[in-house]
Batch of 4 targets.
Target 1
Amino acid sequence: MQQQNYSNHRKMDPPYHYVLSFLCLLILIGSIWFLIASGKVFEGLLFLAIALALLILFLKVRGYGLRAQDRAIRAEENLRHFILTGMPHDSRLTIGQIIALRFASDKEFPQLSRKAAENNMKPDDIKKAINSWRADHNRL
């Protein structure tokens, strides 16, 4: 497997990100077209409601999965910080900063955590500041 770094750490799930998102968009457009072109108001509104429900489901399912992963990452990184420093994470760190810090090696993790909290670094800036990358191949 290719070594992970800042430029290649983002992962996409093609069936979800490309196929399913395209199908949701196609169904939404088709339902709007059917409502306008068919003259069947009840059926068109029902079709549109189903398309909107599918679109909301598509967006929410992704969010729920990411939120669960975020909670797990926060707990793992707080434990890692405690093991390395004897102290929990700085309470000023946001979940986005903690998620970005998970890529830092154990050697630079405590110092970068402190710097991120003190300077209120953006997650992308934290990732760019990492010298020794610690891969995470599990998150999508």
Target 2
Amino acid sequence: MARQGQTEMAVLGALSMQPMTAYALREAIRDVLGHFWSESFGQIYPTLGTLEQRGHVRRREGSRPGSSIFVITDSGAARLRELLSEPIKAVPPRNGLLLRLFFGRNLGAEKCRELIREAKADAERRLAEYDTLARAVAVQDRGSPDLPYTMMTVSAGRHGAEAVIAWAAEALALLDGAPEEPGAPEEPGDTLTNGEPQ
């Protein structure tokens, strides 16, 4: 799915939960979807305009003079279902931490330990945030038909953070006995390409 389609999905999805101003929409995407989906603020406003031109959202007068509240229309709900039904496009992984650890012999064990400890601390922070979010959602959305869907995404975040914490303990144990100083580069004949010695 193209980037524009995914932005439309985020915007329409947020509006399907409740009508809101453009500012509230931006905040909702950042604070709620932001736990698992990153969306550029520079894309949200133009996307709202495009969706309005196509009749997928409409404006109504807000409580303050000059403010507008965006409401999803029937065609917008149909467009959202269409977008949600499209196949998920796999994204090639780009993990800066694992890239550094893969070549960690050049950093040395202690620097690698620092990176792993930072990743563990970040995962512990995220786990605490997910726990707080789960409690808040359980209260705020009690009785809402969206509750099981929201909770399963929060649960996925919790499991991801827990997995990083468990991995960090295992990774730190693997570094026991590794050379503390960065290692010298290997001779060209010692490197492997496609599993075969050069």
Target 3
Amino acid sequence: MLQKFFRSSLAGLQEYNSLTWFHQDRATCHTSNASMEVVQELFPGKVISRRVYTTTTTNIEWPPRSPDLFPPDFFLWGFLKNKVYSNKPRTITALKANIRAEMAAISTATCRHVFENLKSRLEECLRRDGEHLDDVIFKK
């Protein structure tokens, strides 16, 4: 997927440049040697991962079990799940179409709000010296 889809998709993105960072999720399969070689080639020194593949000092090792700090975990997956399945897609093609449509429909204002929330989470994490944020993030 990295070679056949991701690399060619990046080439067409105006936003992809030397300042672009790559942030992996925590799936072990995403940190295989083969995957990390491609990611490091595409984002030299700009990788946030549970396994920093090279000794490049600008890469960042992602803290384990940190869903409080990962926008897809604290926002995107739950947000999309409700919308993508609302019309009960019956085929993979329909499911993919729903995902694409719902991703495209996320507003700039929503993205701003998510990243403002991320900034608050990061600041609180720093204030707590890296401790979990359960009482802050999951208020009842």
Target 4
Amino acid sequence: MTIAPEKNPQTGICQDVIFPPGDIYSDEPPLESDLHLRQIILLLTCLEWLWRDRNDFYAAGNLTIYYSPYQRKSEFFRGPDFFVVLGCDRKTRKSWVVWEEHGKYPNVIVEILSDSTSDTDKNLKKTIYQDTFRTLDYFWFDPNTLEFAGFHLLDGEYQPLQPNEHGHLWSQQLGLYLGVHEGLLRYFTPDHQLVPTLEEMAQQAERLGAKLRELNIDPNTI
């Protein structure tokens, strides 16, 4: 940040003028609780592992999106709890700056509801994501009440998604279902299989190895 003296034309006294840095970091407010943080990390890490061989997307949590038509970072910005942009380079970013990303907005947004943000997420942000971002898939989830809803942009307006027999909602953009599992929002494959975390995969491998050893089969030889 640069600070330069400037003379006040009325008083003739020099005062400091603060110029914001040109490439600022995301500056989102603290998360509501550790449960909200855990939920965001879960969505991020599971998708990054599932798409580990892909380099055409960007996923982030609690990161600012700057979208000023005048290319100013001091106005028109929002920080979704979790979002995914498709058709872009998979690289680290300090923030998502629309005019530096060929005009791309998120394809998918998930907001984690809380008492302090619920009204904004369901109204103001929903309108911005529909009318300005044109984000095709928008979801919200409350980890305390387990309220879960999703919308798909059709003819310029969000239409509510209907749950399947498992209570899961389809994300056309991700090619995955989202649904509540053990109190948290998780991904499910098109054939309704839970997308596991690395820890869950390790536990599955351990159980399989134990079963094979019960059958006198060395899992290391398979």
